[in-house]
Task: inverse folding
């Protein structure tokens, strides 16, 4: 068994790709895969392995292009509007329907609308016709031997129709590249099993496998290989024996005690790179074993997904003979400072909205373990090597995951995140699906600052002002003095103490918090302000509350920390406590408002959001949720 | 059996859609379909039937975010760079790998790189750590009960990974809309059978079925129903009994003697529209039978495909809860006058290239039977009702079938079309696939005029000048006097007489054409000029050649007409004769050149085309084709 290797290389992205290409060329595997015969019924999305030529002309005989009568044009020259020409049916004229072959000795068709039929044997015509009028000439569409589809063409419905039309019932399509995916990790469980503490659900195989399938390849996932060098070596050997086009080793690609991918590849083949200068995705392994490329995929899901985009998908497309489609990009400005490691190509997932005519990009959580940052991403910003990052307000180019039209119909909400904003988003999606809501949680005060900076359309806030004993209004004048702002009530919510099931410490009020481990919210959060106010009322200081410095960013995170026994109590919403089956002691009903600069009220997504907010279906749905009141929802405070 | 109905209605597109929507609402079929449970392995591309919430937090316990040692942060405060702090393994510090749960009473992780291990029992650390350093907190990614995917979301690989990560192994996805497709027509044959004269291959079911599958629905195609009212009525009744979401009747939607779709729908349900004011696609039938929408699809393939786009795909998306994605569009100018029927929405397929910074749209063959016009289309121009069409040079908006980046890398060749231009396109595609060749056949002189008008980058020409006994050069000064033009040789080609297999009339030269039925090429074609020249040499006048007025537009079409017995002889390329197994008498070798205004020589697609033309692989492939010489291919004439 190899020694624990602590350090990874820092091979630039392009260098790593070049090494892989060179190795593929040496192995004779850099060219598109050979063709296989595919029935037309299964050809959708497949790629032609060569130019496809017409086997038969289409149409393959001259035929009528209209319903009517086939005639010989030369026999109609004397027909006039004022002097009908009679034609004998079965001798001079023959009834034909669209698509019928022209009877012998005819070369034109008269439309049925332009004849009269005085009796069963004759028709009368009132104008001469030109040769080949309303005739589809043989080969009008395709002529035998002409090229109908080019090589390396991904077949669409009309292409498949055309192939059938010119005499094919099968087509030579490139074989689908076949990837064998080996998930590894002793702590990993398949997703249909319930993980215990210390066990994790293995889902990178679903991400990578589906990336490959969506790109036109095939992916087979093996059983999970335990963290054991001999087991991994054997599994890799077994995979090689199946002769796939590509082997992916999931996890174990770093340099830790249980990271065996690089060593296994090195033993069975040649290691080309271990550690690529990209973030996220640094611990990538690239090698060749028995002339089969083997890629070690990092275990963190964001790294895994981006490694798939950077290394796996280009390979699949190369083998299919397809070009990598140019990503749609847009110019945006960053609403945050972005710090990038100097030596790395840095890929940052961002949420996007158009505000005051500019595309604003807000970086999402950067942790490589946060797969929801990819689920929620509207785009991916690439900060190249040797850039140290970006200042707030700096321009950046974003590869789009969403159509620009949809981004332009996005209402960006920053500030406090209420879970019922997701309910609002659901109603909006059902009611006016061309619009979207994107909500970024920066706390109530952070939201007002974002409005001031022009980074959001709306701010969610529930800021209690002890002096006036009101919510939100005093803070507007404090943070948005120069701005005409409308304040619309979103909901009233019940705030209180979130306690473990059964309330083992018997806490009944703020006064009982002495000695208990409290879970706090972050600075600037409305719930923290409220808690500070209640502490003051009970004449407690923060120093007397254990855990006051433990900050969580959402109600659900507080509830989860209590559920996990990390703390004995937190403050938050009744809805969060009940969602996790926890006890709850209500302390107050607070008003959660949306602050909206007036210049945004008439923009399409904000108008659609407010319409949905005031819709009876939403108000009734919201009012039915435990811990919420909707009797003032949609009302204008100011 | 119903009477033959001659006239169709002219219902505006929006009115027809509105009638269908009203009927769907009445039938309770206008809303997205219900959900069904789908294993995650099969969820790619499926659409969520409701918002999906996390069943389990991810991670569902605090875990190490790095390989290293778990410690209690409070126990590390005295560590300094200059004063190492020893920690006892198994008591103060615990080795952990990424993803391991934090041992009890620890709240931070020290990276393995930052410790020393002097012996088996202890490590030394050199800096204090903050609480939760290198710890992935429970719920960092997803917190139990939070909304992970919205309703009506089409699932991508990362979405499926996220669902597995938060405790799902199945997901409620909208049932796939199921369409039953009934092809009709007594003359129609399945595509795997060889059609005789008068029989046609049925392929619209492949187009419509694949359009539906590509959009996320299911399509089942029945046997072909003969043109018989009772048979169609019975087939429709059988289809209704299977309770699909949608029934399509292919062909038989017009008002001819064999068009029974409208009558059958009328008998078994309600006819909503028969005849829609769109071109192509006018004879559409829309109805409801037993609360199932039934659409009669026109028989011509272009009409069928566009009816699918206009009526069928929006229904499939509606039932899936998906928005119709906004088509990417671009502004172009038309290189041709386009005549549209005033009362109709007119849809025109166009080829696109960027020339002198402007997108030039060239309408493709407009016949509704020309499916290759859809195969070759780079975009679709919509000329709305009440417009009578467009002048040449007029602006038009084009919905793109190709990415704009690819259109910008298109070399547009107009003029004479040599079949070996397709061979060049194949080589270009293999060699420099980011570039494309589009070739539009307008004859040699038409190509030079297109260059003068700035509608093409290159013109293919083989124009013999009897006075100088040279090719092409004299015509350049005639048609492109004010232009700096380079002339590059494409190939030498053998021209001659194309004759039926066995040459039944014993034709050996032009002189033998008296009395034979000749197939001519269109005015402006180089082959026609050559033929006129040869006629003159043999002292024959056009009037003495039967069929002189019968014009075909390509070499292959001439050969096809001879093969079909429409004519006794035509003039064209050896390659065309041999492709169809015909006799050929060579008369001359002509030079086919590409004329290129010099300002285009450095543009990327033209440069790539010329590189490919001069590539040894292409020259040798071309020279190996019967009837071609490539010894001067790529050489500059002027």
Result:
């Amino acid at each position: 068994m190899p020694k624990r290797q602590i350090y990874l290389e820092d091979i630039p992205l392009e260098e790593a790709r070049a090494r892989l290409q060179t190795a593929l060329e040496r192995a004779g595997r850099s060219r598109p895969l050979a063709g296989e015969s595919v029935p037309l019924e299964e050809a959708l999305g497949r790629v032609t392995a060569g130019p496809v030529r017409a086997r038969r002309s289409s149409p393959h005989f001259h035929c009528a292009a209209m319903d009517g009568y086939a005639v010989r044009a030369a026999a109609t020259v004397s027909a006039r509007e004022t002097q009908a020409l009679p034609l004998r049916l079965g001798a001079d004229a023959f009834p034909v329907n669209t698509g019928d072959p022209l009877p012998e000795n005819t070369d034109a068709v008269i439309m049925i609308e332009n004849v009269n039929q005085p009796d069963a044997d004759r028709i009368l015509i009132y104008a001469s016709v030109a040769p080949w009028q309303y005739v589809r000439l043989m080969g009008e569409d395709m002529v035998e031997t002409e090229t109908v589809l080019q090589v390396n063409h991904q077949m669409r419905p009309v292409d498949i129709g055309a192939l059938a039309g010119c005499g094919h019932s099968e087509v030579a399509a490139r074989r689908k590249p076949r990837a064998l995916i080996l998930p590894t990790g002793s702590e990993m469980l398949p997703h249909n099993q319930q993980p215990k503490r210390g066990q994790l659900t293995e889902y990178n195989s679903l991400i990578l496998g589906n990336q490959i399938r969506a790109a036109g390849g095939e992916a087979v996932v093996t059983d999970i290989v335990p963290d054991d060098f001999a087991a991994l070596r054997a599994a890799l050997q077994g995979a090689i024996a199946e002769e796939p086009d590509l082997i992916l080793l999931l996890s174990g690609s770093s340099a830790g005690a249980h990271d065996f991918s690089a060593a296994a590849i090195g033993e069975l083949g040649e290691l080309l790179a271990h550690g690529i200068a990209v973030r996220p995705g640094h611990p990538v392994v690239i090698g060749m074993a028995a002339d089969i490329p083997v890629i070690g995929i990092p275990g963190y899901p964001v790294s895994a997904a981006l490694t798939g985009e950077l290394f796996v998908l280009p390979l699949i497309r190369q083998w299919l003979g397809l070009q990598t489609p140019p990503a749609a990009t847009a110019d945006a400005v960053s609403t945050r400072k972005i710090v990038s490691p100097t030596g790395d190509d840095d890929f940052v997932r961002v949420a996007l909205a158009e505000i005051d005519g500019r595309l604003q990009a807000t970086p999402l959580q950067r942790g490589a373990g946060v797969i929801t940052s990819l689920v929620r991403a509207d785009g991916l910003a690439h900060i190249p090597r040797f850039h140290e990052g970006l200042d707030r307000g700096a321009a950046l180019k974003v590869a789009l995951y969403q159509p620009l039209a949809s981004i332009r119909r996005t209402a960006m909400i920053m500030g406090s995140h209420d879970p019922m904003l997701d309910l609002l988003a659901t109603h909006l999606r059902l009611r006016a699906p061309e619009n979207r809501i994107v909500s970024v949680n920066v706390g109530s005060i952070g939201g007002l600052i974002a409005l001031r900076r022009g980074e959001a359309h709306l701010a969610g806030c529930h800021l209690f002002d002890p002096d006036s004993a009101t919510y939100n209004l005093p803070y507007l004048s404090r943070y948005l003095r120069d701005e005409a702002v409308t304040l619309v009530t979103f909901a009233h919510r019940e705030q209180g103490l979130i306690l473990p099931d059964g309330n083992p410490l018997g806490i009944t009020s703020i006064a009982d918090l002495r000695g208990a481990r409290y879970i706090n919210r972050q600075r600037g959060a409305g719930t923290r302000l409220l808690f500070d106010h209640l502490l003051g009322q009970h004449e407690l200081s923060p120093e007397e509350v254990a855990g006051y410095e433990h900050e969580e960013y959402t109600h659900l995170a507080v509830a989860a920390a209590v559920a996990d026994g990390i703390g004995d109590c937190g403050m938050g919403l009744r809805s969060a406590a009940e969602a996790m089956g926890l006890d709850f002691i209500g302390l107050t009903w607070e008003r959660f408002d949306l602050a909206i600069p007036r210049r945004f009220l008439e923009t399409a997504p904000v108008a659609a959001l407010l319409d949905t907010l005031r819709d009876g279906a939403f108000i009734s749905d919201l009012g039915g949720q435990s811990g919420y009141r909707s009797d003032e929802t949609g009302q204008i405070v100011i």
